């Protein structure tokens, strides 16, 4: 059954791959699963019909037959568990890959989102100049730790997994901050993720929503 996901009809980043439907699109592309996209406006997201799918009135959602899911991590995990290509077969390696998924979303992403939100909504506040270095320090602490663990490896734990997929999408949120420049191995890691053909198809499909270009074989 072809799943349907929801995505922004109007995106703050104009489809540059930061909205979280990108993670789901990328996972679907990695496993070769066709999907449909329903675009929702900001007001539609807060309507009861969408809240029935997503209690917090956000995107992405995922519908597949009777199943409705929200939370990008849960959706990526669902896809990865049911289709080959995003989780190792070995039970322990699989558990570790899932741990990296959680690490991406619950340990690395929060300080990055906090920094992004501050620069979006607190820039004109008196405390912003004082607070920003603190927020950057918290992000850099995680980047230091992640960089040390990655070392010279291609991916976080053996072959590319859903853990890498989520970590790459999380790190992408820092691309305009300049903070990644101090971590060449993380820069290389990000570039390797972005160079994956499935990433490219997902990115182009999301961007096509805003450029009006036909989706390049991504969403069908
Ligand atoms: N933890 C959620 C976060 C979802 C989220 O923040 N979605 C954003 C788009 S990337 C959204 O819908 N923002 C609009 C809003 O919150 O009103 C996930 O990973 O799916």
Task: Give structural notes.
- The model has no long low-confidence stretch (mean pLDDT 95).
- The relative contact order is 0.16.
- The chain has 220 residues and is α+β, with helices and mostly antiparallel strands.
- 55% of the residues lie in helices and 8% in strands.
- It has a four-stranded mixed β-sheet.
- The chain contains nine helices and four strands.
- The longest helix has 31 residues.
- It is globular and about 50 Å long.
- α5 packs antiparallel against α6 and α7 crosses α8.
- The structure holds glutathione.
- The site of glutathione has 10 residues, from α4.
How are the SSEs placed, and which strands pair?
Layout: E1 4-8, H1 21-31, E2 36-40, H2 42-45, H3 48-51, E3 61-64, E4 67-70, H4 72-82, H5 91-121, H6 128-150, H7 162-172, H8 184-194, H9 197-211
Parallel strand pairs: 1-2
Antiparallel strand pairs: 1-3, 3-4
Helix pairs in contact: 1-4, 1-7, 1-9, 5-6, 5-7, 7-8
Glutathione (GSH) is lined by residues 19-20, 45, 57-60, 71-73.
């Amino acid at each position: 059954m072809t799943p349907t996901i929801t995505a922004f009809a109007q995106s703050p980043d104009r489809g540059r791959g930061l909205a979280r439907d990108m993670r789901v699109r990328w996972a679907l592309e990695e496993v070769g699963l066709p999907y449909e996209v329903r675009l929702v406006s900001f007001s539609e997201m807060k309507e009861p019909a969408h809240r029935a799918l997503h209690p917090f009135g956000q995107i992405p959602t995922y519908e597949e037959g009777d199943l409705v899911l929200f939370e990008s991590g849960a959706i990526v995990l669902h896809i990865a568990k049911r289709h080959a290509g995003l989780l190792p077969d070995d039970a322990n390696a699989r558990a570790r890959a899932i741990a990296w998924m959680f690490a991406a979303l619950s340990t690395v992403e929060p300080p990055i989102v906090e920094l992004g939100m501050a620069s979006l909504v607190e820039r004109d506040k008196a405390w912003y100049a004082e607070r920003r270095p603190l927020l950057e320090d918290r992000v850099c602490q995680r980047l230091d730790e992640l960089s040390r663990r990655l070392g010279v490896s291609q991916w976080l734990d053996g072959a590319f997994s859903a853990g890498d997929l989520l970590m790459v999408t999380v790190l992408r949120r820092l691309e305009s901050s300049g903070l990644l420049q101090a971590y060449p191995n993380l820069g290389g890691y990000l570039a390797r993720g972005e160079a994956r053909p499935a990433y490219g198809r997902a990115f182009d499909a999301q961007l096509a929503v805003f450029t009006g270009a036909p989706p390049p074989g991504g969403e069908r």
